[in-house]
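To the wet lab folks,

You asked to see what we're planning to order before we commit. Fair enough. Below is the target structure as tokens, and below that is the sequence we designed to fit it. If anything looks off to you, flag it before the synthesis order goes out.
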């Protein structure tokens, strides 16, 4: 009577053939896949280091808006301090002078827009 091994071996050979072929293919293509990954990694690092024109424009626009907001807040506080100063509050007069100096320093970095 044939042993169980002798019956199982012929049945598993077709399955092993595909397995061996797949392994051989994987081994043969591994260097290509590794090189491809290395190139993609280099490209990703390059993308992270460089800044596109649109990203630069967005950053500049955001910085300008932040300066405009800061200048607007200073102007409101300056007007408030001026009103208090006119009522005789000396501390408010000092605050108004300090805010005015800050606004004068900030104005050159805020673009001029006619009609605003």
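Sequence we intend to order:
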């Amino acid at each position: 009577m044939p042993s169980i091994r002798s019956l199982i071996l012929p049945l598993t050979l077709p399955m092993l053939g595909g397995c061996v072929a797949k392994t051989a293919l994987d081994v043969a293509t591994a260097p290509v896949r590794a090189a491809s990954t290395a190139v993609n990694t280099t490209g990703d690092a390059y993308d992270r280091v460089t800044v596109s024109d649109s990203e630069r424009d967005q950053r500049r626009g955001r910085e300008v808006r932040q300066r405009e907001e800061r200048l607007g807040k200073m102007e409101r506080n300056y007007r408030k301090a001026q009103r208090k100063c006119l009522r005789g509050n000396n501390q408010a007069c000092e605050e108004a002078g300090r805010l005015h100096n800050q606004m004068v320093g900030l104005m050159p970095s805020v673009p001029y827009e006619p009609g605003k």
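Structural context that might help your review: Residues 4-49 form the longest helix (46 residues). Residues 37 and 71 are 49 Å apart (CA to CA).

Thanks,
Computational group
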